[in-house]
TrEMBL record:
It is found in: Cytoplasm. Gene3D superfamilies: Methenyltetrahydromethanopterin Cyclohydrolase, Chain A, domain 1 (3.10.340.11), Methenyltetrahydromethanopterin Cyclohydrolase, Chain A, domain 2 (3.30.1030.10). It comes from the Bacteria. This is Methenyltetrahydromethanopterin cyclohydrolase. Signal peptide: none annotated. GO terms for molecular function: methenyltetrahydromethanopterin cyclohydrolase activity.
């Protein structure tokens, strides 16, 4: 497996994540996961007909980061009623978060009541390269296997499986698709584990040079799963928007690090201040009517590693986390 050029020192996401996918499948019974073949691909059910769990979600999150991230469950400060959460670290946050974990590939098949839609995330994206983001990252992976994570509650049709495999340049029986409904234990965990990725995505939207991001760590409280999709979507978003903390280490001038810290937190958005489910309802379910600057952690620290100075912005909103985690819609 190689990246775009022989001299590219960046690792292969496929090579690092393949053992994680293999162990996930091998431990399916222990992790309460379901396995089936669809169009030749191995489909892992992590919350549709099989319950999955927190450990499944933790391991899926590490796989989704292409093997370049470490995800742990444990105490997190700032939300007293919800003292446990997810901590995420990557020594290569740009490649792990934007090159793999980011849900950037729109996948659909059919129409009407039989339509299937999902956003594909995971290391397989770097094989398919269906997003212009990979040109910006100047990264290409090659492999004979691929893995994707989809935040859905339905099994993809065989026709879509075939298209995914073809885009990756592999046989369908070498493809692993992991399904994590938002309201499941595994789904909740793997979504909240995107706290660092959310920060990287906003940083990218703000135009900060990706090649100056050196390291990153983030954490967020783990909400209770269950309820309907709107409840689960609201809680997982609020865990990050109002309970998430991220610390980025960047190269470059102090002034630019300070400006990044100021603009990065969710409080910089006009839609900040209400639980996400309320914001979503107010725009009548039009996701694109929500200010995109809202999607970021509540509190950030940006350290300019050249000078050693750190800049802090934003603050946790435990009252909004509490309101969100107890509300059921």
């Amino acid at each position: 497996m190689t990246t775009e050029t022989p001299s590219d020192p960046r690792p292969s996401l496929a090579a690092l994540s393949a053992p994680l996918a293999g162990r996930l499948v091998a431990d399916a019974a222990v992790l309460r996961l379901g396995l089936e073949r669809v169009g030749g691909a191995c489909v892992v059910d992590a919350g549709i007909r099989h319950p999955g769990g927190l450990e499944a979600g933790r391991r899926i999150a590490e796989l989704c980061m292409g093997g370049l991230g470490r995800v742990t469950l444990g105490p997190v400060p700032g939300t007293p009623s919800w003292p446990f959460g997810v901590t995420v670290h990557s020594a290569q946050p740009v490649l792990a978060c934007l090159g793999s974990q980011y849900a950037g590939w729109s996948l659909s098949h059919g129409s009407g009541k039989d339509a299937f839609f999902a956003l594909g995330s995971g290391p397989g994206r770097a094989l398919a390269r269906q997003e212009t983001l990979f040109d910006e990252l100047a990264y290409r992976d090659t492999a004979e296997t691929a893995a994707f994570v989809m935040e859905v509650a339905a099994v993809p049709p065989a026709e879509l499986v075939a298209r995914i495999a073809a885009a990756c340049g592999i046989a369908a029986d070498r493809l692993t698709l992991i399904l994590t409904p938002t309201q499941s234990l595994a789904g909740t965990t793997q979504v909240v584990a995107r706290v660092l990725e959310v920060a990287l995505h906003k940083l990218h939207s703000l135009g900060f040079p990706l090649d100056r991001v050196v390291d990153g760590i983030g954490m967020a409280p783990l909400p209770p799963p269950g309820g309907g999709f709107l409840t689960a979507m609201g809680r997982t978003n609020d865990a990050i928007l109002y309970g998430g903390t991220v610390h980025l280490h960047v190269a470059g001038p102090d002034g630019e690090a300070e400006d990044l810290a100021r603009r990065l937190p969710s409080s910089a958005s006009r839609d900040h201040g209400r639980p996400f489910a309320e914001v979503f309802a107010a725009v009548k379910g039009d996701f694109y009517a929500i200010d995109s600057m809202l999607f970021s952690p509540a509190r950030v620290t940006v350290t300019a590693i050249d000078s050693g100075r750190s800049f802090h912005a934003g603050e946790l909103a435990p009252d909004l986390v509490e309101r969100s985690f107890r509300d059921v819609r």
